[in-house]
Each structure stands twice: as C-alpha cells, then as structure tokens.
Design goal:
The structure is a single chain. Helix 1 crosses helix 10, helix 8 packs parallel to helix 9 and helix 11 crosses helix 12. The chain has 370 residues and is an alpha/beta fold. The chain is globular. Strand 8, helix 7 and strand 9 form a beta-alpha-beta unit. The protein has twelve helices and twelve strands. It binds nicotinamide-adenine-dinucleotide (NAD), 3-isopropylmalic acid and manganese (II) ion. The site of 3-isopropylmalic acid has 5 residues, from loops.
Amino acid sequence: MTRIAVIPGDGVGPEVVAESQKVLRAIDAADPAVTFEFDHFDWGTERYLRIGEMMPADALDILRGYDAILFGAVGSPVVKDHVTLRQLLLKIRFGFDYYVNLRPVKLLPGVPCPLKGARPEDVDMVFVREGTEGEYAGIGDRIYPGSDREVALQTAVFSRFGTERVIRWAFELAKREGRSVTSVSKGNALNYSAVLWDEVFDEVAAQYPTVSKESLLVDAAAMFMVMEPQRFGVVVASNLFADILTDLGAALMGGMGLAPSANLNPERVFPSMFEPIHGSAPDIAGQGRANPTGSIWSVALMLEHLGMGGWAKAVHAAIAATLADGKAFTPDLGGTVSTAEIGDAIAAALAAGDCAAGVSTATAAKEGGR
Ligand code: NAD
Ligand code: IPM
Ligand code: MN
C-alpha cells in the first residue's frame, strides 16, 4: 500500500489535485499490485483566516510517515504571499531537505508553442532547481520600518555542501540519460555566491569527463531558451534563477497549466512532494478552467520516484495521447474542455490500457514519466 498525503491548498490547487487523484485511482483499479491510500489535509489560506496558521505546528511530523505528498498550490489575494508561502510550502521544502526540484520542460506533440517553428524535439530539457538555500534562505531583516531610512536586507546563502550536492545530482542524471549539463549563474555580478557556484560546477564537471557541459550567465540563458531551446539538456541553477526560468520553460511547453515538478529528497529520509509549478491562479479559480496536466504530469514524476516507472511512462503517454489531436484543450490552450474532462480523458486512457501496454510496474524505466 502506498500512502499519499494530499495538500490541495488554495485557488485552483484543489481542482487540479482532484484530477491527479482520479488518475491515481485509475491505476489502483487497473493494477492489482498497486493500492493508493489518500489522506487529505485542509492546510492553506482558509485555515489561516480561521485559526491563524497555515498548517499545524507538527505538520512535518504528520507528513513524515507518508510515502509521498501531492501538493496543489497556495496563495490568495487576501493574505500576503510571503506569509502564506513561508508558513506552508517553503517550510515543507526546507524541512524535508528537498535539494532537488526537478522540473521537466518538454513540448508535447500537438500542443501550441509560442516559439515560431519549434518542434517537440527542440524543447526537451529538465531543470534541476536547488531547493534548500540560495536566494530563498529567508535570512534578512528590515530596520527603521516605515521611515525614510528604511532598509531591507535579504541574504542569499550558497554553501559548498548545498551547491555541490545539487550539481552532482544533475551530472548523475545527465550521465544516466546521455544529456549535457548547463549551469546557470551570474558570476559577473554576484562576485561571491555565483563565483563559488561556478567553481564548484567546474570541480564537479571535471569528475564527469564524458558529460558535455556549459556555463551560462542567467541573462544569456533566458535568451537562449527562446532562441535556441535545443541547446539545453539538464539545466542546474539556484533556487531563484531556476524559479524564473521554469516559468519561461512552462511558456515554451504551451503554458503554466502544463508544467510539472518534483521536490525530491534523494536520500529518501523524507517523503518527496509533487506539484505543478503554477500557483493558485486566483483569476480562474472555481471555474473548472484550470488545466490539470501539470499536476497529473507531477503524478508521473511521483510514480517514477516510487519505483513504478512503468506507470509513470503510462501516465506520460496518456497525457501525450490526450493532448495530441488538439480536441482536449482547456481554455489556456485555446479550447473549451473543462478541468474534470481532461482528468477523465487521461484516466480513461490509462484504464483502457492503451498507454500501459507492455510496461511493467515493477521496474523504474529510464526517463519514466518525463
Ligand atoms: P499563477 O501560476 O497562479 O498564475 C499565472 C497565470 O497562469 C495566470 O494567468 C493563471 O490563470 C495561469 N495559470 C496558472 N495555472 C494554470 C492552470 N493550471 N491552468 C490554466 N492556467 C493557469 O501565478 P501568479 O498569478 O503569479 O500567483 C498566484 C498566487 O499563487 C500567488 O499567491 C502566488 O504567490 C502563488 N503561487 C503559488 C505557487 C505554489 O503554491 N507552488 C506557485 C506560484 C505562485
Ligand atoms: C514555484 C513558486 C514558489 C517558488 C513560490 C510560490 C514561493 O513560484 O514553486 O515555482 O518560488 O518556489
Ligand atoms: Mn515559480
């Protein structure tokens, strides 16, 4: 039995997570060897408004016992984002040492891409985003608040330990999958943190002579993602740089609703957490317009992490099949199909066995759900 903690959160979070669960239930029904058990946690802004906390003080102890966490999105126009996100999402990411935030950026056949002439094989990269330090360390202060002398300090933290482990993980991934590694930093301006990052990158790269590597400044990386996306394979970057570039990546995939992510604790001391990269999308929440694909794709990453590589591939194939002919498009892709209809279509493709044919649930296949 696989126990999954579900945190739907705010806005469209519950809408997309419901479709991901639909997909997991379809797998449960189709495969006698697989049983998923879900526990729901109503953590989020409504709870904050009710009792003053986003999640209970012992939330991490509660989550620790699960095999994985399925997360929707958090954030609401009525409470400041730094309160809601720091008290929930970032607390889990830091507390469970998710130093790898894996974010595939892959254009599927049939999905409209804003880049003129881009083919699916041109947009196929995977970001390895550092998730436990960097610009998100949350260290700083504000002094003389409200006065003309007000000062805000926000200290980025780049440790050799933290930098090395994420870069090494990226190289291991690239070696397994026969891809290149691109490091993204900003050593010309960030003369301490990014210089350490670049030095560590060169040191680790030297240990992988068979993997081709490149270092880009983040500004140039943004440009190349648009002008020459085929340049990228595995991309490793700090918390903030990869946050920004993966929203650009989501756009290259066809939109925010499509992009998945996996917060991984590679040592498996803590359960890993899977979420779309988009936010709570308050502008479309409650209308059945959200695209659940990013969340469902995150389920594929979850299945891969849980050792169900066959099902991971099947979910990926079901997503690709559902989107291929342009009929099952939510409004973000120019269609009129609802959130639930996409979930139904992907679950039905799985249940029909079309996508699962020939895959074994027992072994984690290369590339799994990516
Ligand atoms: P957002 O990702 O929520 O929305 C950006 C745009 O993308 C909006 O136009 C939205 O409608 C669209 N979009 C997002 N998800 C979509 C989906 N599944 N289908 C179709 N369209 C979709 O980003 P934002 O507007 O900058 O932030 C909104 C709130 O979400 C803020 O409170 C922010 O802090 C929070 N946020 C949370 C997370 C998270 O929980 N992981 C991530 C990003 C932003
Ligand atoms: C993401 C989000 C979060 C981040 C926010 C909500 C703190 O944008 O998951 O990409 O920046 O990590
Ligand atoms: Mn983001």
